[in-house]
Design a protein that fits this description.
With 333 residues, the protein is mainly alpha-helical. It has 13 helices and no strands. It is globular and about 65 Å long.
């Protein structure tokens, strides 16, 4: 990718994303004045705008940025790995594994915490990790070399259904308060309350990000098929493993912050491809910026459309993503 093309991508996607991220914290049931919030001459304890911005809105904005970027980029990687345009970060059971972990932590009132992770995000990430390992073991066992993408898909779909059944089973016996809290978590929510969950997930997202930086060229060749990729000098097995574990790691970390927010990983990559083509070197970078801006915009809608009541952001992404997904199914026939 030339510098000129990189600059065009950054301008096309980065500038709108920056505008969305600057405006979003100022909007809501209470309007925030950025000049007043950033005015250092007003003491923080007397500056209501600064308190709303830095205590309530900025953590939510940062959560939207990292979760949106992670899910969108993971969607690009899974679609390239599986060579399936309908694959999402949740296709391989990562989401349902995370949801099952969170459901167990909420229902049984787990209080175990490790470092900056509290019980629910920790259980959520552990659940996603279990799902990833089960799917990987099945795909590796059935393949003569590399990973069987067909087994990856089938195992992921089956695991999704199985974990969903377990969630319903646990939910049936939970009391009303726990069941309501669990359902609220399953709808997706960026109201993280503090910077702690974001800081806790950053090391995992950084590892995934380093892998994502290495993957674009390999994914470009893998779209031609494993044999063609191997003939061009790509280590197919190595690239598949890096793609699978890095995308799963990013998904698990994102879900531990905001819950299973759907459709980001399928809407954003396809819209980006319509604008810039299929080169993964461009699509992954652009999807990260577009995904961040898209989720922040959806969260702003969720906070403001019926203010002062707030909708779960997953409801907004589903209302936008559902019709788009149906259009995609029809257009791909």
């Amino acid at each position: 990718m030339t510098r000129a093309r990189l600059l065009r991508v950054c301008v096309l996607f980065g500038v709108p994303a920056a505008i969305v991220c600057v405006l979003a914290p100022t909007l809501g049931s209470v309007q925030v004045s950025l000049p007043r919030a950033l005015d250092a001459s007003i003491p923080f304890e007397r500056n209501i705008d600064a308190q709303i911005l830095f205590v309530a809105r900025l953590p939510r904005l940062l959560a939207g940025i990292v979760v949106g970027a992670a899910l969108a980029t993971a969607g690009v990687v899974f679609q390239g790995l599986l060579r399936n345009p309908l694959a999402t970060p949740f296709t391989l059971g990562v989401s349902s594994g995370a949801a099952l972990g969170a459901m167990l932590a909420i229902t049984f009132h787990w209080t175990v915490a490790t470092g900056p992770f509290s019980a629910v995000p920790l259980a959520s990430f552990a659940g996603s990790l279990v799902a990833v390992l089960v799917v990987y073991a099945l795909a590796a066992a059935r393949a003569r070399r590399g990973l069987s993408t067909n087994v990856l898909l089938l195992a992921g779909v089956t695991l999704n259904a199985f974990f969903s059944a377990l969630i319903l089973f646990i939910q049936y016996f939970a009391d009303f308060a726990d069941a309501f809290r669990a359902i609220r978590w399953l709808m997706g929510d960026l109201d993280v309350g503090s910077y702690q969950p974001i800081v806790a997930a950053l090391p995992l997202l950084a590892i995934a990000g380093l892998a994502f930086a290495w993957l674009p060229k390999a994914l470009n060749v893998l779209t031609l098929g494993p044999d063609a990729a191997e003939a061009r000098g790509v280590s197919v097995t190595g690239a598949q493993r890096v793609a699978f574990f890095s995308a799963s790691l990013a998904t698990g970390a994102a879900v531990s912050i905001g819950g299973p927010i759907g459709f980001i990983g399928i809407i954003v990559p396809h819209l980006v491809r319509l604008m810039v083509g299929a080169d993964h070197r461009v699509v992954m970078l652009a999807s990260a910026m577009f995904g961040a801006a898209f989720l922040v915009a959806c969260d702003t809608i969720a906070r403001t459309i019926i203010a002062p009541i707030e909708l779960p952001v997953g409801v907004v992404t589903a209302l936008i993503g559902g019709p788009f997904f149906l259009w995609l199914l029809i257009s791909k026939r």
